[in-house]
């Protein structure tokens, strides 16, 4: 209780007792005030008015004190940014592989800067950013390794002005440019510069930005046909070749013609995770469940899709990943990139899947990013531009 509130309450009680005494014993007023009966009544009325005034003052103070307290409670516990598929390249605008969707390579860097500037200007400080893969486009590889590294440096540079952690996942376009071995020692391997739980030989990791929120980053190109040009004997690359040969017989490894439904995921621009990563994921989620942590999974490739006839952007062994996730109710959401049109749906287990719209296919003047806020009972994702907003209910309220 504040000092103001304490003293005002005692003043009201004191004056109330006096008024009550005079009301029950009118002669007492004659003794105390030594005035005529008319003046006695006037003085008693003044005492009553004083009580009313102090009471109103007290109520007003309590109202504003309550409002301030409510405002303080309504501040989010933590705020973070989300952005996907920037795919910057210093080249003219173009289209996707199907020649049906425009891509704005140079302008993508401007939109990234817009997002960063908005986060910097926000009254609600952003604690970190999730970058969901494909920061640079495969077109940079036309100029060779030097061109790819220059583009990566250019795309990473705007993040430096935030002076906060940026957590990355690897996309297919990173691997069109440079091998996995390069990224293990680059800024895109978030574990190198940040104190997070992982092995520095992996591109998957986890961290805890709040006692009730855990982020788990998957590497859905660990088993892949991409990024192993310098290490063709790697077991994960051999596994990828075996899986692919069993599921896609087309000469062009990005051709899914002849494949139906979920089988359309068997294209080289997708990939999967190893048995080792699956075991790691299970161990992380088991620990998170026991500690009542709400978990968000981040990945470049989606690990579930609502439209089973349109599974062209789906992790190869998505079913194995989801079988593990479904065992642990602590998982409340999966954030992905890769499919630039974006989509979202709530699955039958109450997990919110969001594929964020790609910056690369956002026209100049538009926006494509989101800001997430952790509240007592929910995580809100507020989209800007092409990205819609949604609310995710926490399994374990704060």
UniProtKB/TrEMBL annotation:
Cited Gene3D superfamilies: 3.60.21.10
Ranges of residues in domain Calcineurin-like phosphoesterase: 79-341
InterPro entries in alphabetical order: Calcineurin-like_PHP, Metallo-depent_PP-like
Cross-referenced Pfam families: Metallophos (PF00149)
GO molecular function: 2',3'-cyclic-nucleotide 2'-phosphodiesterase activity; ADP-ribose diphosphatase activity; CDP-glycerol diphosphatase activity; manganese ion binding
PANTHER family xrefs: MANGANESE-DEPENDENT ADP-RIBOSE_CDP-ALCOHOL DIPHOSPHATASE, PTHR16509
Name of the protein this chain belongs to: Manganese-dependent ADP-ribose/CDP-alcohol diphosphatase
Record organism: Biomphalaria pfeifferi
